[in-house]
Amino acid sequence: MNNHQLLKQYLLNHPEYVGKVVDYNPSTDRLFPFDFTAANTELTIADLADTERFSNWVNAKLSVGNYKYGIGGYMEHRTIYGRSNLFSGEEEPRRLHLGVDIWAPAGTPVYTPLAGKIHSFQDNNNFGDYGPTIILEHDLDGLKLYSLYGHLNRESLADLHPGKSISLNQQIATFGNVDENGSWPPHLHFQLMFDIGDCRGDYPGVGRFSKQAQLMENIPDPDLILHFKQ
Hints:
- It is a single chain.
- It contains five helices and 13 strands.
- By secondary structure, the protein is an alpha+beta fold.
- It has a single domain, classed as Glucose Permease (Domain IIA) (Distorted Sandwich), CATH 2.70.70.10.
- It has an eight-stranded mixed sheet.
């Protein structure tokens, strides 16, 4: 079996070892599916470049329908990354979102859905970047899996060290505000990877659309753990 099959089998066989990333009750909590592809014509380049205007738009979408979280993004071909030179490139800009974003107010708690240990952490303090970021390493019956949590508050990086044990459902962070999370409307970028090479405290959350097939081999759908899709 390949890594994707091994992961699915592990999660199916050991539901008691799988927890939450955020507080979510599927019977009562509403989720708003954000679309940041070219199909979204409500947001202009000016809206995206102005973090306050972008945040107001996100907040309005969530409040109108009393949604607890906005979600979306796995392998979504996004246009919003034009707001930052971080995602530009001479040959092909990076526009393919590799994780799932969970949009909610700053201060929202973040938990680890699988027991593991701290692999690395870093404050990626650039406009449009992750801001404070934590990467965890998990051993799932011999299958190595990494989980990444981006756009956190800076306090989340305190008292961490590589190798520190993290328990199932342990709160490890909170959503950061716009002044510390890379200048984004508050949200969590959650991503899974089988291999991260030499990366420490950072791993691309956006890739080139032309490389989608190769990227999907290493980056499984986070909804295998989140269970947001009904």
